[in-house]
Amino acid sequence: MSAPVISVRDLTVRFPSLDGSEEVRAVDGVTFDIRPGETFGVIGESGSGKSTVGRTLVGLLEPTSGTMTFGDTDRAAMSRREWRRERRHYQMIFQDPNAALNPRMTILDSLIEPMRIVGGRSREEMQETALAALEKVGLRRDMAQRYPHEMSGGQKQRVNIARILPLSPRLIVCDEVVAALDVSIRGEILNLFRKLQDDLGVAYAFIAHDISVVAQISDRIAVTYLGQFVELGPTENVVNDPLHPYTVALLSAEPQPLPKHLRHRRRMVLEGDIPSPMNPPPGCRFHTRCPWATAECSAREPEWRELKPDHHVACHHATAEGLPPLPSRRTTED
Ligand SMILES: Nc1ncnc2c1ncn2[C@@H]1O[C@H](COP(=O)(O)OP(=O)(O)OP(=O)(O)O)[C@@H](O)[C@H]1O
Ligand SMILES: [Mg+2]
Q1: Scanning 75, 134, 294, 296, which has its CA 20 to 30 A from the CA of 182?
Q2: Taking the domain 38-55+80-89+170-334, which CATH number applies?
Q3: What DSSP designation does 168 have?
Q4: Residue nearest to atom 22 of ligand 1 (CA)
Q5: What is the rounded CA–CA span in Å between residue 249 and residue 147?
Q6: Which residues have CB atoms below 5 A from the ion given as ligand 2?
Q7: Is the pTM of this model over 0.85?
Q8: Distance 334 CA to ligand 2 centre (A)
Q9: Which atom of ligand 1 is nearest to the CA of 13?
């Protein structure tokens, strides 16, 4: 297997709380690789640290601790110049299609801007590259003369993808990129992502609340809870045979039916609110909401174990066969 596009070891990202007296542990000891050309899905409740992980991957946030290796170079060992050159290959697309588009600039100028910052191309070259990128994302060349307000949300998201293509991306972090779009065009945009991946070999970190969206597009899925990964494995495994109680709960809460081959049997209702990331529960962070929790769970943090090939989980009760039968009435088999 070729070297990962990015390797993250024991990453933590902390923010000061509003009054500065405490720390928000937004990401707290996360380890993973993203492989070339794969789609790495990230799911988890609001506030679990998904966007913080994504922003750190592309250099919009600095890690508090931990290491990040880009290709084969440790981020910490790169000079400012090397980092500037390297980070252009790691890009991000946001939920709001307008986030990266200046309303006063034509689409053409918005497409040219990232190339201008990188430098080394003539105006004509940049223009031609921009128009070719527009075609690659399924838009007509004449749309380059429009302004953002003259385009739909889906078209603008296509422009956001086109802006990145001339930078030879290795990884694109997609943070809720279809959440603001009409359901009818989500599928088209997801197809575009797939097609570009086939053509360019780019990897995606695909962050979303909507598990059915993540499951459709991802090769692997990471499940986040309170700043940590609780489970990471191949999509089919995670969705069909989840090993962590939190994953079981997320799948149960899924309002839209999953594709038939990805349906799961176990049902569980998640109770209570997500605890504060300033003061996470001791032991397993999920124990305050977990029907499987025992004394061990509040006393000792579970290790990150590979229970099945390529399938990791942090739970004292999980085995390669899954979770033991639930001792309460909170699940039903259907
Ligand atoms: N710049 C910041 N300053 C202070 N706290 C922050 C900052 N960014 C994020 N946080 C906090 O870090 C935690 C994780 O936030 P993050 O945005 O990564 O979550 P998320 O999983 O993306 O949530 P959502 O699904 O709502 O987008 C939250 O408690 C959030 O309030
Ligand atoms: Mg977010």
Answers
A1: 134
A2: 3.40.50.300
A3: -
A4: 51
A5: 43
A6: 51
A7: yes
A8: 32
A9: 12
Residue 283, ligand 1, Cβ within 6 A: no
The residue whose CA is least distant from atom 11 of ligand 1 is 26
Q: Is 15 in the pocket of ligand 1 (CB under 6 A)?
A: yes
Residue boundaries of the structural domains of the chain: 38-55+80-89+170-334, 100-167
Query: Rg for the chain (alpha carbons), in Å?
Result: 21
Overall average pLDDT of the 182-189 stretch: 92
Q: CA dihedral in degrees (226, 228, 234, 236; nearest 10)?
A: -20
pLDDT of amino acid 283: 96
The total of other beta-carbon atoms located within 10 Å of residue 131's CB is 19
27: CA distance to ligand 1 center in Å? 9
Beta bridge partners of 69: 7, 74
**C-alpha torsion sign, points 209, 211, 277, 25:** negative
Q: Is the CB of 228 under 6 A from ligand 1?
A: no
Strands (E) in the chain, as ranges, are 6-16, 23-34, 39-43, 65-70, 73-74, 90-93, 171-175, 203-207, 220-225, 228-234, 305-308, 311-313
Cα–Cα distance, 105 to 94 (Å, whole number): 19
* Amino acid at the residue 132: A
Q: Averaged over 163-175, what is the pLDDT?
A: 97
Q: Measured between alpha carbons, how far is 14 from 242 in angstroms, rounded to an integer?
A: 29
Is 114 a pocket residue for ligand 1 (Cβ < 6 Å)?
no
Question: Whole-number mean pLDDT of the chain?
Answer: 92
Encoded tokens for 333: 């088999």
Beta-sheet pairing, 311-313 with 228-234: antiparallel
CA of 53 to the centre of ligand 1 (A): 10
Whole-number Å distance between alpha carbons of 254 and 192: 24
